[in-house]
Automatic annotation (TrEMBL), chain A:
Residues 73-94 have a biased composition (Basic and acidic residues). One of its GO terms (molecular function) is ribonuclease P activity. The keyword Transit peptide applies. This is Mitochondrial ribonuclease P catalytic subunit. GO terms for biological process: mitochondrial tRNA 5'-end processing; tRNA 5'-leader removal. Residues 359-587 form the PRORP domain. It comes from the Eukaryota. Keywords: Hydrolase, Magnesium, Metal-binding, Mitochondrion, Nuclease, Transit peptide, tRNA processing, Zinc. Its main location: mitochondrion. It comes from Alligator sinensis (Chinese alligator). Residues 107-116 have a biased composition (Polar residues). One of its GO terms (cellular component) is mitochondrial ribonuclease P complex. Its cofactor is Mg(2+).
Automatic annotation (TrEMBL), chain B:
The lineage of its organism: Eukaryota, Metazoa, Chordata, Craniata, Vertebrata. Residues 135-166 form a coiled coil. This is tRNA methyltransferase 10 homolog C. Its main location: mitochondrion. Residues 188-380 form the SAM-dependent MTase TRM10-type domain. GO terms for cellular component: mitochondrion; nucleoplasm. Gene3D superfamilies: 3.40.1280.30. GO terms for biological process: methylation; mitochondrial tRNA 5'-end processing; positive regulation of mitochondrial translation. Its EC number is 2.1.1.218, 2.1.1.221. It comes from Alligator sinensis (Chinese alligator). It catalyses: an adenosine in mRNA + S-adenosyl-L-methionine = an N(1)-methyladenosine in mRNA + S-adenosyl-L-homocysteine + H(+); guanosine(9) in tRNA + S-adenosyl-L-methionine = N(1)-methylguanosine(9) in tRNA + S-adenosyl-L-homocysteine + H(+); adenosine(9) in tRNA + S-adenosyl-L-methionine = N(1)-methyladenosine(9) in tRNA + S-adenosyl-L-homocysteine + H(+). The keyword Cell division does not apply. GO terms for molecular function: tRNA (adenine(9)-N1)-methyltransferase activity; tRNA (guanosine(9)-N1)-methyltransferase activity; tRNA binding. It is an enzyme of class 2 (transferase).
């Protein structure tokens, strides 16, 4: 890469010199970007440059940046530092499963390209600071004339007050002024005022507004109801919040926030039975309860003797299991404390992280395996065929002839140990270096005496080099299958791996998210579990040695054996993506 | 209690009177309503009295507005009771819309029964809000149009008034009679009729009607109408074929609704048959942005097929799959070759496609044809001169 940049640098600079003669500077920049692109493309096509495995296409953006900034030495220094840092991360990265929390973040850091910061948009409203003291009518009139350009002065002012969390008295004086001027307060202003009251927990004011609204309007909009529910839920009139919930349901299904505040209100007042009722209603509506609501349940029910209630709480944990949801750190602490507070059962909870291995290092309990059961496996196989391969139109991803050809091919060959996504490993065709990586990967597995299948499109076959001849020598172990150029090869990869059986693994850097999206939701979880257990992801070989991320042998999910509970949770310091699973665990053990 | 009331009355009178006098007409109710009802919450008063603030009048009227609001209610409450006999869910929905409007959200001012029913049939909250937003925007557009029309009419009347004075003048001596719009229409129809006999066919594949939602289908019909209009007005029109159009299907219904009687007089070939039955296979080229083959020149002996599909949900490969199924040649426009593409999908609307093809047919110039690609999608044309100069510099 470095060589390529230098070489092109030289060419560019001479060109640059010429360019400055004819063209104004602004067009020069554009042409420069174009040039770099063209040069890099032509180089790959025509010139005998050998580049390393790094990609040329995303890099040439960087090249332009370096050119612009090459005069300032500090930039280069920073770049060096970043390189060093990413190298260090490489070492750490190689220990982590690609589906562990934070893995994607690490990958993205090492491949970071400089992005331009987006500036927040400023509007006319943004520089208005609301008054600090309550004003009288004359003073408000003054403000009005000063801010003549605002069409909706009161509303804007109220929302600026919400933004700056002004004192409630200021808002009151504004409302008094509005009444003086118009004789009434409009609904949207009342709502704005209510937001301010709820924000600052002004209980008496909330009650007043609620009474006014009840008197004035027969119904409210869901936004108003939600605010009232939120405001009323932690006061002594919390029961009315639950009535409001019923009002909302008349027109639209309540949101999880609505349910959540009602439940919290009931729990704050020790009415667990009512809270559970609302909770069940919420689950029946297919609304996923927010984590802080569940936390409230565990907090309130500490030290309970009631077996029925205990069962309810354990059911909530099992609900996590079914929906592949993981508690956050705060909820985990509440769960831990709750377990430890159950009288008569001596639970001890400890935090741990289980990296590679079979079981929990604290209690030596073997965790559930990542392998799918026979039945699940068959369901997945069938659904992949039906939803991913065929989908709504089989011609979208392949053709019936090709599918037939592939199925015949699979039947005539033994099951494979490893299926390799040739195009993904080799990168795009324009990268010569990519083929070296593919060759390395293939020979790495071939040396271990594994049966390999390399999938690719026909244009992969056309691009033959001397290394491919060497590869044909290994033909006994390696099979190739090439799809049409306009077909998608990923579904074949998944199908071939599934067809080969449970021991078979596949190699690709692709996360297969678009294929996962073709499946119905319950199957998506199965697919993800299977993917975590069977996908090998190679790391780019700067050190010229192929290494793969480890496959975890256990399933990351809430699990119990009666005497133990293992609950994975989200570390609040690590940002977890939806296709990743947490690395930290809570281990609960009964003695 | 009565002392408080006296106090309050005095204070309020003192603080409020000057403004109330100023805008008497507006706030006249204030005095009357104030005497009618006693304030409900007086608890704040006592504390303020004790504190003896330097400016008590200002503090005191902070809560006053609530009393005003509450006193107003009692008058209004009795009104809306008669309408309750309607379908209860429908009224609940109507109230929901009304309250949303009061809350300052984007909802239509008037909503018909039919629209309310459609609203209720929508399954999710977000889809309902989206529909309301759509209705509101449509209403706003219609109102703006109406206002504009009225203004125009008014201006016209004024103009007529001034013209009438000159009407007594002699008629002008002209070489031509005034060119009326139907003269032009006749010419266009003549050309279109010619194209029906001698013109190059251009096929619209109407097979996708079941892949589209209601809105998308509506958009597709609009685009097709625009296509037909633009084609008719061109110098050398295509012979348009609407193939695979099922009788009484959604497309057919959409067309007959929009065109009315004119649908039967349209100078295009509408058929239920597939284009593979009408034309030799080797002359057909399916235009799709997912194709791997890039179109280089417009060929006058080929028959181009455009899939009339509006795809807002983003399910790529639909038309390519269709071409694959029928084993047809495919091609895509050389957008990347001529334009510096910045954002947006590469699939253009039907009328843009037709404009591009028509221009290509007339001039064969890609740069001219690709003027019809919306400018927001790209950052100008690729400089062909620079390209060639670069090549010269290199080799």
């Amino acid at each position: 890469m470095a060589f390529f940049l230098q070489a092109s640098n030289w060419g560019l600079q001479t060109f640059l010199g010429r360019c400055f003669l004819f063209q104004p500077a602004s067009t020069c920049q554009k042409s420069l970007a174009l040039m770099v692109h063209l040069l890099s493309r032509d180089q790959v096509k025509g010139l005998p440059f050998t580049t390393s495995s790094q990609s040329a296409v995303p890099q040439d953006l960087k090249g332009v940046h370096m050119l612009h900034k090459s005069r300032s030495g500090s930039r280069d220094g920073k770049k060096e530092k970043r390189k060093e840092r990413s190298r260090e991360e490489d070492k750490e990265k190689s220990l982590m499963s690609p589906f562990s929390a934070g893995a994607a973040k690490q990958r993205s850091v090492s491949q970071q390209t400089p992005t331009s910061m987006r500036l927040p948009r400023l509007s006319k409203k943004d520089d208005i600071q609301p008054p600090e003291k309550p004003l009288n009518a004359e003073e408000w009139q003054e403000w009005r004339t000063r801010l003549e350009h605002l069409t909706d002065f009161e509303n804007v002012m109220l929302h600026q007050m919400i933004k700056y969390e002004s004192s409630i008295d200021v808002a009151k004086s504004l409302m008094a002024d509005v009444v003086l001027r118009n004789g009434e307060v409009k609904y949207n202003l009342l709502l704005g005022y209510l937001i301010l009251c709820v924000q600052q927990k002004q209980v008496a004011e909330i009650f007043d507004i609620y009474d006014i609204m009840k008197l004035r309007f027969k119904t409210l909009d869901p936004g108003g109801y939600s605010l009232l529910i939120r405001g009323l839920s932690d006061t002594e009139r919390w029961r009315e919040a639950i009535l409001l919930l019923k009002e909302i349901r008349k027109v639209t299904p309540p949101s999880k926030g609505n349910y959540g505040y009602c439940i919290k209100g009931a729990l704050n007042n020790q009415d667990v039975q009512l809270a559970l009722e609302v909770y069940h209603e919420m689950v029946a509506e297919n609304v996923m309860p927010p984590l802080d609501v569940l936390q409230a349940f565990f907090d309130t029910c500490k030290g309970t003797q009631d077996d029925k209630l205990k069962k309810e709480l354990l059911d909530m944990l099992l609900c996590f299991r079914e929906n592949q949801v993981y508690p956050n750190e705060a909820l985990m602490q509440s769960i831990k404390l709750w377990f430890e507070s159950v009288p008569g059962e001596k639970w001890t909870g400890r935090l741990t992280s289980i990296e590679n291995g079979w079981g929990c290092p604290v209690c030596n309990q073997v965790l559930e395996t990542i392998e799918l059961s026979k039945k699940e496996y068959n369901i997945l196989k069938k659904k992949i065929m039906k939803n991913v391969m065929q989908g709504s139109d089989i011609f979208k991803k392949t053709t019936p002839q090709e599918l037939k050809r592939f199925q015949d091919f699979m039947e005539n060959h033994l099951p494979y140990d490893i299926v390799i996504d040739g195009l993904n490993i080799a990168g795009s065709v324009s990268r010569i270096g990519g083929y070296n990586v593919l060759f390395d990967v293939v020979s790495y597995f071939a040396q271990q005496n594994l049966r390999l299948l390399v999938l690719g499109r026909k244009h992969l076959k056309d691009f033959q080099s001397w290394k491919w001849n060497a590869m044909t020598a290994m033909q006994g172990k390696v099979d190739f299958f090439f799809t049409e150029n306009i077909s998608q090869d990923d579904p074949f990869l998944v199908y071939a791996t599934l067809h080969s059986g449970n021991h078979s693994k596949f190699v690709t850097r692709d996360l297969l998210r678009d294929h996962k999206a073709c499946l119905p939701e319950s199957i998506q979880q199965l697919f993800f579990k299977w993917q975590r257990g069977h996908q090998l992801m190679p790391f780019s070989s700067r050190t010229k040695k192929i290494s793969f991320a480890p496959i975890l042998s256990y399933d990351t999910v809430v699990q119990t054996t009666g005497d133990t509970w293992h609950i994975p949770y989200d570390d609040h310091l690590v940002e977890r993506y939806s296709y990743e699973v947490p690395r930290k665990w809570l281990c609960l053990q009964r003695k | 209690m009565s002392i408080f009331n006296m106090l309050l009355r005095n204070v309020v009178r003192r603080s409020v009177f000057p403004f109330a006098m100023k805008e008497r007409r507006k706030n006249g109710f204030f005095l009357t309503s104030f005497y009618k009802t006693f304030p409900r919450r007086t608890l704040n008063l006592s504390s303020y009295l004790k504190d003896a603030e330097p400016n008590p009048s200002q503090k005191l009227n902070l809560d006053e507005w609530k009393n005003v609001m509450q006193s107003r209610r009692q008058e209004e409450i009795c009104e809306p009771t008669s309408k309750c006999e309607e379908d209860s869910t429908l009224t609940a929905m109507r109230e929901f819309v009304e309250m949303r409007r009061l809350a300052g959200r984007l909802v239509p001012e008037n909503i018909t029964e039919e629209e309310l029913k459609t609203l209720m049939e929508l399954p999710t909250k977000s889809s309902r809000l989206k529909y309301l937003k759509f209705l509101a925007k449509r209403e706003r557009k219609i109102n703006a149009k109406k206002a504009k029309q009225e203004k125009k009419n008014q201006e016209q009347e004024e103009l007529l008034g001034s013209v009438e004075k000159r009407d007594t003048d002699e008629l002008k001596n002209t070489f031509l009679k005034r060119l009326h719009s139907n003269t032009l229409e006749n010419l266009h129809s003549w050309r279109a009729a010619n194209a029906m006999i001698f013109g190059q066919p251009l096929v619209f594949d109407m097979v996708y009607e079941n892949c589209m939602s209601h809105t998308e289908l509506g958009n597709a019909v609009d685009q097709m109408m625009e296509c037909e209009g633009f084609n008719r007005k061109s110098v050398d029109p295509f012979h348009l074929h609407y193939c695979n159009l099922s009788v009484d299907g959604p497309y057919h219904k959409g067309f007959s609704k929009r065109y009315g009687e004119a649908w039967d007089k349209l100078l295009v070939t509408v058929t239920e048959q597939c284009y593979t039955n009408l034309f030799p296979r080797d002359r057909l080229i399916y235009l799709t942005p997912d194709s791997r083959k890039i179109m280089t020149t417009f060929e006058h002996d080929k028959i181009y097929i455009i899939g009339s599909l509006v795809d807002k949900a983003g399910q790529p490969g639909t038309s390519l799959a269709r071409a694959k199924r029928l084993n047809l040649a495919t091609a895509k426009l050389p957008l990347d070759k001529y334009l510096r593409w910045t954002l947006g999908k590469k699939s253009l609307t039907l009328n843009q496609m037709l404009c591009i093809l028509l221009t290509l047919k007339e001039t064969g110039d890609w740069k001219e044809a690709l003027q019809f690609v919306p400018q927001r999608y790209h950052d100008g044309f690729v400089d062909v001169d620079l390209l060639s100069r670069l090549n010269d510099a290199k080799f």
